[in-house]
Specification:
single chain; alpha+beta; Beta-Lactamase; Arc Repressor Mutant, subunit A; 2 domains; five-stranded antiparallel beta sheet; 53% helix
């Protein structure tokens, strides 16, 4: 099946964007945003009949599954890599959309994969579409979005439109909807830095020390009280005072010093 030339409706794009926003609201990205995983999860949420989803990457003739919402999707992908044949493999090779409507009536196209997927994994139907992905360092990786159902003929025309739209724009939509979280964290960081800067200025004026010495006072107080630097800075701004020195144990050592 060739890639459709119809542009996705504004409604479909809008609904997918909302789906990403809902996903991020439930589980904000941290330590590197998992855009491919988000795309796969939204596929399962939004595509009618979808049970599992995955994303295949390919480079230099090698195929691998980057993310999967369930082990079943990963195993179904690996069957296709083993046979060098199947909807996801052909979608990448042809830069197209491929659908296996019913694994029990696959005909001659993907007989080995269809039989194993249905018998061993409980897959009923498959839809795969080549993806437009965010740039990679070497610029060579190709990808496909793979959506699986446990029932035959699960994906109607509407579902296939979602598959194609998500494959084309999914990672971009994930990036765009994550911008608000990036902005939120940036604002938090700027607020913390501003608070620290004010505290340093207050200590410089009150104690007649250099900028570096004032920062060291904050740092030492943070270590000795086991509190974050920005919290110490906030206390200085609010009270004009550094925290009281930690209590001393009998042997004279600070009891709250962090190694």
């Amino acid at each position: 099946m060739s890639r459709s030339t119809d542009l996705p409706t504004t409604k479909v794009v809008r609904l997918l964007k909302v789906a990403f926003e809902e996903l991020w609201a439930e589980r904000p990205p941290a330590d590197g945003t998992p855009y491919p995983q988000a795309v796969a999860e939204v596929a399962v949420r939004q595509i009618g009949g979808a049970k599992w989803a995955s994303i295949t990457r390919a480079s230099a003739g090698r195929f691998w599954t980057e993310v999967a919402t369930h082990e079943t999707a990963r195993l179904a992908d690996e069957l296709q890599y083993t046979y060098a044949s199947g909807p996801c493999v052909d979608a990448i090779r042809d830069d197209s959309v491929h659908q296996l409507r019913d694994v029990h009536h696959a005909g001659r196209r993907w007989p080995d994969f269809a039989k194993r997927a249905g018998t061993d994994l409980g897959v009923g139907s498959v839809a795969s579409c080549s993806m437009v992905v965010l740039p990679v360092e070497d610029g060579q990786a190709q990808s496909s979005l793979n959506v699986y159902s446990d029932i035959p003929k699960a994906f109607d025309d509407t579902a296939m439109r979602y598959v194609q739209t998500l494959a084309r724009y999914g990672e971009f939509l994930a990036l765009v909807t994550d911008d608000r979280y990036r902005i939120h964290h940036l604002r938090q960081a700027l607020a913390s830095n501003r608070e620290i800067g004010i505290a340093i200025g207050m200590l410089m004026a009150r104690r007649r020390v250099t900028r570096e010495q004032a920062f060291d006072l904050l740092r030492i107080a943070s270590q000795h009280t086991n509190r974050k630097l920005r919290d110490i800075a906030t206390q200085v701004v609010d009270t004009g005072m550094l925290p009281s020195p930690p209590a001393r144990s009998v042997d004279g050592e600070d009891t709250t010093v962090v190694p």
